[in-house]
Amino acid sequence: MVDKILRVMTANLFNGGAPIGPLAKMLEREHPDVAVFQELAPAQARVIRQQFGYGTLDPRRDSHGMGIAARYPIDVDRFEMTHRDGWKGMLHGADWPQLDRDLEIINVHIRNPLMRPWRETSRTRKGQVDDILEYVAAKRMARVVLGDMNSSPAWRSYRRLAGQLQDAAVAAGTARRTWAPLAKMPRLLRVDHAFVEGVVPVSTHTVRIKGSDHSALLVDLLIE
């Protein structure tokens, strides 16, 4: 069973705020098989490319930088969404030692609910969740939808996603808070999530990212 465990990670890097040295050490220590990033800046992307041989990174300096990195081949394409596109990657079973079948990874960054004007933000967030749910409903398969969703379990956006997909942290019994207003503060809310279907969440854990207001969320999956 151990050989079939796949580790995926999501990390918001605070638009370059996470220093590259500690980031590199964290990636080496946690050793995710697939990692998705939000608020990815150019210097961070260079460090990530040194550790992962595959994937697509689109670093920017405007908080919209994102990407997917993988240790084995992955087919990456844009995931069209309202306001800000995400990324989707297909892992083919023939290329991955942990997989006997294909697995889709989707990286999303849902708009912050506190952005003004609030009415427009509310419409944008609803549209983004609509985009995700319509896409996954069109074709059921083994997949993971993960990222900074700016939605605690109290928010309607989270509840809608959890109504159609399984929250990996809840299923594994290891849900932890991931965000605070300041990088050095204790984490106050759980807003970074991994929603899954067709796979078994074995465990999850969080890791503080030096310089970021988010902790990384790591998920160990069994692909049956």
Q: What percentage of the residues does DSSP assign to strands (E)?
A: 25-35%
Number of helices: 5
- CATH C-level class is Alpha Beta
Structural class: alpha+beta
Residue-averaged pLDDT, rounded? 97
Helix content: 25-40%
The CATH topology: Deoxyribonuclease I, Chain A
Shape label: globular
Overall radius of gyration: 16 Å
Low-confidence stretches: none
So, the CATH homologous superfamily?
Endonuclease/exonuclease/phosphatase
Number of beta strands: 12
CATH architecture type: 4-Layer Sandwich
Main β-sheet, spatial strand arrangement: 3-4-2-1-12-11
How many domains would you count in the coordinates? 1
Alpha-carbon distance between the two ends: 9 Å
Main β-sheet: number of strands, strand sense, barrel status? 6 strands, mixed
Key terms:
224 residues; 6-stranded mixed β-sheet; globular; alpha+beta
Describe the structure.
- The chain has about 220 residues and is an alpha+beta fold.
- It has one domain: 4-Layer Sandwich (Deoxyribonuclease I, Chain A), CATH 3.60.10.
- About 25% of the residues lie in helices and about 30% in strands.
- The chain is built from 5 helices and 12 strands.
- It has helices at about 20-30, 40-50, 120-140, 155-165, 170, and strands at about 5-10, 35-40, 55-60, 65-70, 75-80, 85-90, 105-110, 145-150, 165, 190-195, 200-210, 215-220.
- The strands form 2 sheets. The chain has a 6-stranded mixed beta sheet. Strands 5-6-7-8-10-9 form a 6-stranded mixed beta sheet.
- Strand 7, helix 3 (about 120-140) and strand 8 form a beta-alpha-beta unit.
- It starts with a strand and ends with a strand.
- The model has no long low-confidence stretch (mean pLDDT about 95).
